[in-house]
Fold these 2 entries.
Entry 1:
Amino acid sequence: MPETQPTDIQLPDAGQARPPAKRRDNARLIAAALIGGVVAVFALLNLNDVKVHWLIASGQTPLIIVILIAFGLGMAADRLFVIRARRKRRAATSDDATSP
């Protein structure tokens, strides 16, 4: 019977820490869930109608709709700013790499 030689494969230890990126993603997910939960509870506690002056009209709207629209617009603005900052950072690093 031929002898087998041990391989150089190393298995991770059970006590080994997760990579930082995975921990950061988990922290972001937990933070997003907490913020979403707080917004949901806040919106559900404010169900009464309010007078709102929209851009083209005004009228009575449930406050929960106003809160959810404001939250959605805030999230969209945040994403736009984050994307813009990443593009600027990426352009700056690529300019540094190409300059002599």
Entry 2:
Amino acid sequence: MILPKRLTGTRHSVGAGLNQAKEFNSADTDFEPLLDSHEAARLLCIHPKTLQLMARRGKIPAIRVGKYWRFRTSALDSWIKSEVSFAHGRAYRETQENDL
């Protein structure tokens, strides 16, 4: 296959693009896929608009990609665990105060 002059060279060659794609995929094994607001809301059993509002207010870990919110499952899991432990501690303190 003969390429026009402007497409030859290492930067624009077809082979270089394929090699870069292979390197990117093999080096990116730890990438965690992001959930959109509908998927994350389904996991949390809340409405997507409620989740988006929480993200805007900074109440839940989220990533803004353009005009869309994205969520990491690991960040949501950590957030849930911290909320549960906070609620448990608060309930324990309220019980102790009522006993006095």
